[in-house]
Amino acid sequence: MGVSTASPEEGIAVISVDFPPVNALPVQGWYDVAAAVRAAGSDPGVRCVVLTATGRGFNAGADIKEMQRTEGYTALVGTNRGCYEAFAAVYDCEVPVVAAVQGFCVGGGIGLVGNADAIVASDDATFGLPELDRGALGAATHLARLVPQHLMRTLYYTSRTVTAAELHRHGSVWRVVPRERLHAAAMELAREIAAKDGLLIRLAKASINGIDPVDVRRSYRFEQGFTFEANLSGISDRYREAFVSSRAAKPSEPHTSSESSGPSKSSKSSKSSQGGSR
């Protein structure tokens, strides 16, 4: 359990995230992801990083239960800062980061994959931000890197999810493969990237970041201010308490299905069991 790094092939670092049962990360988990990504990117022998997760889904966001059992704003502020550091570490990683996504990818998971350089997903993967249903805000910055502006707004306001196939059509997911092929597909792409010259691939990453039209760090930090405002108003705590109570009364699987005709709207009992970036 936790965050681990392996080097299965020359030039490739694989970072695995494992926080059962649904990869809802505690405060320290976000910092651990940030540290692992930065360490891998700064290794001169690494030319590509693969970010993956074990279990049913890639990421279920922040650990809301940790927030609710912690007095004051310590856990909230910690999650705010931890998410910021993890998302920034992926974006600022000196080499390209390939995200390998299976199952559900919600809340903070969107921050990670939205800042990745490439995404390979399993055919059962779904992506979304349930923030408004968790009394939170944030990661619209990163969702906007995956889908067009008006779709991003619709998904954000409704808490709907989109499938990997839909993101592939928008061009933000490189490949969609059966779940059993996910690791192999991610490694295939990483291998192709890692075959490039180490200095040139670092220069390429820096130059592409430099021409981004949106400063993702500043943009996400701006969003986080509204999250804290919602918490000061008291509304966020009410939503989190209701969420934790509903999970205790009737545990459910994170939402992983989607209507064939378009982005899915999960019912209250089938949404992600955690969710939320901060």
Biggest sheet, spatial arrangement of strands: 1-2-3-4-6-9
Q: For the terminal residues, how far apart are their CA atoms?
A: 23 Å
Percent in helix: 40-55%
Secondary structure: number of strands = 9
Largest sheet: 6 strands, mixed
Run of helices and strands = EEHEHHEEHEEHHEHEHHHH
Number of helices: 11
State mean pLDDT (0 to 100 scale).
89
So what's the overall shape?
globular
Low-confidence stretches: 255-262, 264-273
Radius of gyration: 17 Å
Percentage of β-strand residues:
15-25%
- Output the structural class: alpha/beta
Question: Can you walk through the features of this model?
Answer:
With 278 residues, this protein is of the alpha/beta class. It contains eleven helices and nine strands. The strands form two sheets. A six-stranded mixed β-sheet has the order 1-2-3-4-6-9, with helices on both faces. A three-stranded mixed β-sheet has the order 5-7-8. α3 (74-92) runs antiparallel to α10 (216-233). The chain is globular and about 50 Å long.
